[in-house]
Write a structure and sequence with these properties.
The protein is α+β, with helices and mostly antiparallel strands and 403 residues long. It has two domains: 212 residues, Endonuclease III, domain 1 (Orthogonal Bundle), CATH 1.10.340; 161 residues, Alpha-Beta Complex (Nucleoside Triphosphate Pyrophosphohydrolase). The chain is 40% helix and 15% strand. The chain has a four-stranded mixed beta sheet, sandwiched between helices. A four-stranded antiparallel beta sheet has the order 3-2-8-7, with no helix packed on it. Helix 2 packs antiparallel against helix 6. The longest helix is centred in the N-terminal third of the chain and has 18 residues. It is elongated. The chain starts with a helix and ends in a 10-residue tail after the last helix.
Amino acid sequence: MSQNHEIAAFFRDGLLDWFRRHKRDLPWRSESDPYRIWVSEIMLQQTRVDTVIPYYERFIRQYPTLDALADAPEEEVLKAWEGLGYYSRARNLLAGVREVKELYGGVVPDSREEISSLKGIGPYTAGAILSIAYNKPEPAVDGNVMRVLARFFLIEDDIAKPRTRIAMEDLVRGMMPAGSAGDFNQALMELGALVCTPKAPHCLTCPVMEKCQGRIAGRELKLPVKKKAKPSRIEYRAAALIEGTGENRGRILVRRRPDSGLLAGMWELPHVEVGADEWADEALWSARLAEGLRGHGIALEAVERLRDETHVFSHIRWEMRVMRCRGEIGFAAGGAGEGDDDSAGPDKRPAGFGEAGADAVAGWIEYRWLSPREFGQFAFPKVFLRILGGYRQSAVSPGFPEG
């Protein structure tokens, strides 16, 4: 990827001049605090700037310093992150700031080796923090930047390959202007976000259009080269919005996901995976739902089908159908997981099981009955917020949270 020095200098100087005259006024751009830059960069992964701004502002009001975040309970942090998605980002951020507090006295390290050792910080985030907060000449190469470089320098290597990213980092490092590392990295990101966009680049407004090698070769719409990712795996899921009866009247049954894996530690409506052949037949998937939850000691009475929802993760797509139900929870034979209280069995219930608002342990999953006012205390994935929001707006469900 060795490039003509004249073209590289034209690219660097034109980009810096354009950025300093036209950069967006974003809340984190007035900051040099490495903690706040770290928060912004993690939030911006896989998420649009317009979406991030209000989340960032609320998050920083709640956790204005690294120590404030490091001392916060995970459940509270996940609630503050609720709706942004990709919740592993929040958990990794929390783990990372706790490492900084423990190992570095609350000061974000300014060396690539040390900062890269922190939980959740990869090459891009390390480069962004080091260059923007500390003005270190370190590259920050993400998808936007790789697209810009591939087009301008006519790079036809597959950007999905690690060696291509490493070569592009070397290219950026070689062009890094003395004393302006942060501005240069942000200029690359800004051009990719606003001008050199994926499907319809705005070449006529590009400050470096004149010497763009991809445009000159007529290849700008074919670059960058990237091997197609495997399509998302589809999972069909039947969910139950379970209204309590008796002492739990006015409450909804929710459960907490395990502490590891997808959506770790978050709360959700009970649901089960069903087969593709069961999906089209309401009698089949609702029976499968009742059967699956019966194993956790939950007895369902179906009331009505509520809605369908689709939720896309990076590698999985959930197709979800929701049944409004009434239900009771009790301890069923075989419901206890390994290591549970020996006294629990077919005719006994663990302490606190089934009490209004109390924890209920069925197998290894924690269940709770929640009233409308309690929903604001727990973090839910966006798909369940949408379901609960629709339920709240219905005539039968005043007071529940909006999606």
